[in-house]
Specification:
globular; about 160 residues; two-stranded antiparallel sheet; single chain
Length: about 160
């Protein structure tokens, strides 16, 4: 409980820990710190459900799982730039890959946080996007500090 209260007040008052290498994430179900400079240790993606997860080792036997979804859309964007309103469907409809952190409880999410859609990449066609986007989202969050930081900062 003490740890939760400390995190709550850090988030509530916007205290910057470790010179902005962390982001305070808070919503109705989660208050915590996401560390932008720590790469993921493991990750999995599934094109069937367009879902992915990445585990991060925060030390002291603490692992944080971030989950999300991917979508191919007909709207282009700028790399690692959030889009607040983006129409997506379960059917891939374009060659532009978008990623989003979102609770995927079947993957055992621990954060329960949601980010805005983040533009990742443009593929040659919709079929190529459909077969690569989900894994590329997982890989970008796992290994790319720029993309991971932008996604963490777009939590709402």
């Amino acid at each position: 409980m003490k740890k939760f209260l400390i995190l709550f007040f850090v988030c509530l008052f916007g205290i910057d820990i470790a010179n902005a290498v962390t982001v305070c994430a808070k919503n109705n179900t989660y208050v915590g710190i996401l560390k932008k400079n720590i790469a993921g240790t493991t990750g999995t993606s599934s094109n069937n459900g367009k879902i992915w997860y990445v585990d991060f080792d925060y030390g002291n036997n603490t692992t944080k799982r971030v989950t999300g979804i991917a979508a191919c859309n007909g709207i282009s964007g700028t790399y690692a730039t959030p889009q607040t309103n983006l129409y997506t469907s379960s059917v891939d409809q374009g060659k532009y890959c978008w990623c989003k952190m979102e609770p995927v409880y079947s993957y055992g999410t621990e954060t329960g946080i949601t980010s805005y859609w983040m533009f990742l990449d443009t593929y040659t066609d919709a079929a190529t996007c459909a077969s690569n986007c989900t894994n590329d989202c997982m890989t970008a969050v796992k290994t790319n500090t720029t993309f991971r930081s932008a996604m963490y900062e777009s939590v709402w």
